[in-house]
Amino acid sequence: MMARGGGGRGVRPVDEAAQRRQNAEAPTIPDLGRRVVTLFQPYRGRLLMTGILVIVGAALGVIPPLLVQRVFDDALFPHSGGPQLGLLVVLVVTMIGLYLLSSGLGVLQTWLTSTVGNSVTGDLRVRLFEHLQAMELGFFTRTKTGVIQSRLQNDVGGVSGVLTSTVTSILGNTVTVIASLVAMILLDWRLTLIAVCLMPILVLVQRRVGQVRARIAGQTQESLSELTAITQETLSVSGILLSKSFNRQRSESARYQAQNRTQIGLQVRQAMSGQGFFAVVSVLMSSIPAVIYLVAGFLVAGGTGTITAGAIVAFTTVQARLLMPLMGLMRVALDVQTSQALFARIFEYLDMVPQIQDAPDAQTAATAPGPRGLLEFRDVRFRYPDASPAARDTLQGISFTAEPGQHVAFVGPSGAGKTTILYLAPRLYEATGGAVMFDGADVRTLTQESIIDEIGIVSQETYLFHATIRENLVYAKPDATDAELVAACTAANIHHVIASFEQGYDTVVGERGYRLSGGEKQRIAIARVLLKDPPVLLLDEATSALDTVSERVVQEALDEAARGRTTLTIAHRLSTVIGADVIHVVQDGRIIESGTHAELLALGGLYADLAAQQVAAARIDTDVI
Ligand code: ATP
What we know:
By secondary structure, this protein is an alpha/beta fold. It has three domains: 20-350, ABC transporter type 1, transmembrane domain (ABC transporter transmembrane region fold, Up-down Bundle); 362-454 and 534-625, 3-Layer(aba) Sandwich (Rossmann fold); 463-531, P-loop containing nucleotide triphosphate hydrolases (Rossmann fold, 3-Layer(aba) Sandwich). The protein has helices at residues 16-23, 32-38, 44-76, 85-134, 137-142, 145-187, 189-196, 199-234, 237-245, 249-272, 275-301, 309-350, 418-424, 448-454, 469-474, 482-491, 495-500, 518-532, 548-562, 597-603, 606-624; strands at residues 375-382, 395-402, 407-411, 433-438, 441-442, 455-458, 467-468, 508-509, 536-540, 566-570, 582-587, 590-595. The protein has a six-stranded mixed beta sheet with strand order 6-9-10-3-11-12, with helices on both faces. Helix 3 packs parallel to helix 6 (145-187), helix 3 runs antiparallel to helix 12 and helix 6 (145-187) runs antiparallel to helix 8 (199-234). Mean pLDDT is 82; it is low at 1-24. Bound molecules: adenosine-5'-triphosphate.
């Protein structure tokens, strides 16, 4: 069948491979830092403005503590006389004015930062989404949907904070630290020396903590993507149907709980790594003023110099202001290190090269010379990229021609390679040998988009969005008029059903169209293809899941759809392909018989056997009835 799902699904213990991956390091991406910086390129102007605001704001913030010295030494307790009230008022008003100004600048700066940060995050998300859309079908059959969704949501979401706050945090905190240090040196260089002697040790410890955190972050994201994958698999319509029908909710819960426990453990480890370090830093920084009082006392007592009370108060005020920005810088350094793992995961996906790409000089299918809808397979060989080395090639030299307007059918045992043949026509997979020709041109020389434009696909597993019937239909042709919708649905034998719904074409169909019957969904899918109106139609077992009555209705719709188009049909029920111009019997990746129904019956080969079996089965059915 056409929509073969990706990844193992259903009931099993926590994926061992995923567990192994969780222990692995995050991918190594060279030039990671530079690549992250280039993400900001489109927002250079705003970033510059943010930088200026941050620097001005941070510098302004250091002035009030310096004024404290003047408040104490010149205004409150001058060397001679009583308090200087005039000077005191000027100093206090200046201090309040400066606080007001820095707060105002802070608001503006937050707005700029959050616009830039969120825009960069948004750009990254869209880039990843578009890149994933360009990946070949095989990537999606190999990778769990939840894992893909997790990179897009959890990983990109995870770096959003870093993208939003890092630049301002680094700039603002660095400026505050430098300005505070300058102010401290101006106040007393000896006390400054004592206050900063611990820094190098802190920096070294911080680096080590950062490395540990980065590793845990990679594991956390991997575990989160597993959790998302389980949710996506189990709580989807098909997943819940499967688990309910086998009464496996309890084991699914156990699987979820096990993964959840791993996730909790990792998150606690991530949160706790570095907390001890921060506690030590905090105690050290908070104790420095006490040490300063002590040293100042010894300095004054030893007669090594004079320090005014104002200078000591101002010094400890400035020094206390150093704590937050220093901690901020260390946190940011940790966050940046932690986010490396997430960025690496994002860039790893962005760096994946789609295996099927347009040639640089690719042509448009519709403008290629010759008739439209001519499909030709020339000795096509194919092997799935992830097939086991021992397995034979899935297609072992398939050759056939479907003339424009011809109806070509493929029948044969399950696993023979019929669906694979249909995959190769629209270049969803690339032939590994031979050539697939479309309108006389090798599909590898045509743009993928233009080939798909020429081909309509109806697969057994019909996919309808959780949206109105109208929205599902116009997906094929956004500018379709109501009259066109009705015409397509009438031809597909479904208009009368839609018209009987209270809300007609505006009826919302559930996720994957679950509120409609299988046959109704099929006919909507056929109407969708009719709206697209392509010269080539691929029908993969489009009626095999239906009962005889629905099959007849859908078959009529399909016959209508196939009129005037090159049609490739895969069928298990031979009754649906009796009228085909050519029927190819596929076995083990080869076409072993070809001809019309009558010719193949006369041949007395595999087709005749299949026909005899189906006639016998039909007779049993009739007998039972
Ligand atoms: P059916 O009638 O049961 O749908 P089919 O004739 O359409 O069968 P295909 O779906 O073309 O058969 O599959 C042909 C072979 O290729 C099978 O052995 C199948 O297991 C294998 N195969 C299909 N898809 C993949 C894949 N993504 N990766 C590896 N092998 C695959």
